[in-house]
Structures are given as C-alpha cells and as structure tokens.
Amino acid sequence: MQKHFQKALESIQKSTLYIVATPIGNLADITLRALAVLQKADLICAEDTRVSAQLLSAYGIQAKLISVREHNEQQMADKVITALNEGKSVAQISDAGTPAVCDPGAKLVNRVRQAGFTVVPIVGASAVMGILSVAGITEPHFYFHGFLPAKSSERCKLFEAWQHSEYAIIAFETPHRITDTLNDMMNIFPQQNIMLAREISKTFETFLQGSVIEIHKCLQEDSNQKRGEMALVIYPNIKEKNDTLPESAQHTMRVLTAELPTKQAAELGAKITGENKKTLYDFALTLKREA
Q: Looking at the domain 2-125, which fold is it?
C-alpha cells in the first residue's frame, strides 16, 4: 500500500487543479490517490472548510483551506489561477462526493481551463453510481437529474414526462420534501417501480425498493425512513418485444417500405404504430430481401 501511495505522491504535478472526490459518508471510502493529492496540494478549495477540516484531520493532513462556495466561486477562481501561475498544485473538494456535480466547482473548472491550466479528476465516491450499482438495472442508459424541484407543480411536470421512460432516472431529494415528492408520484404513477436510497455508506444505510405505493406506505409507517441524504431511482419501463408484429403494423411497413428508404420507413412506422423501431427496421429489411 505504501508503495502505491508513494507513487501517487510522485505523480502530482505543479500548476494543476485536481478535482478530488471525497467520502459521502464512510470515511474509509477515500482512495490512496485522493489522500496523496490532499497531502501534497499547496491549496485546498473546500465548500465548507469546517466540514473538510474534519476529513483532513481524520487522516492527519494539514493543509491551507479556502472556502469556495456558489456565491464566491468566480471571485475565488482568480485566487486559484494566481496560485497555479505561481506553480502551485490546487485541490478542489466538496462537503461530500464529487465536486462540480450538483455542487460548486464547475465554474472554477471552466475558469481554470480557460486560463490554460490542466484539470485532473481524482475519481471516487458517488451517490449516483452507488445507487445505480445496487438497483439491478440491466439497461445501459440512464439519466441523472440532480435535485428534484422544490415546487410540486414542477415535480409533477417531470414525473408526467418520465412515466413512460425506457431508461432509468436518478434524482436527489431532501428529507423535508420526500413525503410531498412521493405524494406527487402517487398521483401520476402509483404502480411505478422505484428505489429510495438513504444514507449511502453510512451507519443507517437503507435501500427500499418497490412500487411508489409500497415505498409511500413504508415511510408512513416508519418516520426514520424520512431522514438523511436521499437518492431516488425510477426504473425504466421497457416495452415487451414481440417476435411477431401485428398484421396492421406489417401492412403499414409494406406500404412505407415500398415508398421510403428502410431507416426512414422504420422511424415513421414506429410513430404510426407504436411498435419498436428496431423490430420494424428488421421487418423492413426482410421485405427488401424478399422483393
């Protein structure tokens, strides 16, 4: 382990901004490379210096901390760029997880890149990937929304747009809004399969999976399930693929394929019939071959 840590120390470059992922709960969820960067960095930009000081103290790291928050990010970028010009290495961390993802940091990264300096990610803990890895979703595509809107009307618009999604959707929610959010879901897709993750990697880590109705009932019966950091997964709604197309869809494709290129016929056929575009495309190819 010491060998790898020393190698990580030696790899740290001057005049470089490192975006360092920190634990989202369990302090042991930090990489050797992250510790090496934090130990060697000349300057560490933190969202809340008090929170970050606790992390650094746990690993015996003494560093110069400055606060980079949403309201002062542009201003502090000037200070960071000055430090990089002086040949210093700088680390950016958030209170928990990966900076610049639903946290301050993106504006700093943009300014530093525009100034011509290198920005390097030090990957690590992520609530998004954490919940996705245990959700059991086999489809390769997913959408990360960030925090759900505070207003019910805005949440409902999103849920209406997502109710037929064929890919997983991941979002963050706060404890004081989770009941209202589930109420909104109940009104739009009560049978939708979801997962609610609480306190990922912490002592009271919990994963609740089931329909919106079931999760809503669980929170009503146990108020402890309304506490802590939260992430939600809305499972994809995959249409069952039929080996045999309905006669009406076959007829539609015969007409379209006779007049249009195969790809265009499949796209238009999917809009008309509601059938899977890939299935229609394959059927159109069969018609072409037979012709």
A: Cobalt-precorrin-4 Transmethylase; domain 1 (3.40.1010)
Q: Where are the domains of the chain?
A: 2-125, 128-234, 247-290
Segment 18-39, tens digit of pLDDT: 999 999 999 999 999 999 999 9
What is the Cα–Cα distance from 290 to 284, expressed in whole angstroms? 10
> Which amino acid, 238?
I
Distance between CA 259 and CA 279 in Å, rounded? 19
Strand order of the β-sheet with 230-234 is: 142-147, 168-173, 230-234, 193-198, 206-211
Using alpha carbons, select from 84, 94, 147 the residue that is nearest to residue 124: 94
* 128-234 CATH: 3.30.950.10
* Nearest CA among 126, 129, 128, 121 for reference residue 145: 128
Q: pLDDT of 248-277, one tens digit each?
A: 999 999 999 999 999 999 999 999 998 888
Vertex 116 angle, CA 112 and 120, to 5°: 60
Residue 202's φ and ψ, nearest 5 degrees, are -95, 180
